[in-house]
Amino acid sequence: PVVLYWRALKPLEENYQSFVHIAQPLDRVWAQEDHLNPGGLPTQRWPTDAYVWDAYDIEIPAGTPPGVYSVNVGLYLRSEGTRLARQDERNRPVGDSFVIGTVSVEE
Q1: Whole-angstrom Cα distance, residue 16 to residue 86?
Q2: Which has the closest alpha carbon to 19: 60, 96, 68, 76?
Q3: Burial class (CB within 10 angstroms; exposed 0-12, middle 13-18, buried 19+) of 3
Q4: Cβ contacts of residue 99 below 8 Å, gap of 6+?
Q5: Integer Cα distance of 18 and 74 in angstroms
């Protein structure tokens, strides 16, 4: 299980979908779960004064090779096929997803 806490810093103009990928390398996804409405709300309705709780239950498929995999998360526009850019504290782009940890797969 993975639980994310999202918070909009300003009202969002688009309804984004969320993803959690189990990947190694980041462009090779072995397991995933996407949410149409992260936290049960369209992102245009996310409050700016509170966090939205978003729970995932990702199953690693049989046959996944043993190893350490990244847990990578982000938001995207399904209609456009593009991810929301991630920014640092100076509002500079630093990617389109965020690795929140790792998971080990054993035989």
Answers
A1: 13
A2: 76
A3: exposed
A4: 26, 70, 71, 72
A5: 6
- Whole-model pTM over 0.70: yes
Q: Longest C-alpha distance within the chain, in Å?
A: 45
Lookup: tokens for 85: 């850019």
Q: How far is CA 67 from the centre of its chain?
A: 21
User: For residues 63 and 91, what is the distance between their CA atoms, to the nearest angstrom?
Assistant: 41
pLDDT in tens, 15-43: 999 999 999 999 999 999 999 999 999 99
Q: What is the model's pLDDT at position 98?
A: 95
pLDDT band at 107 (very low <50, low <70, confident <90, very high): confident
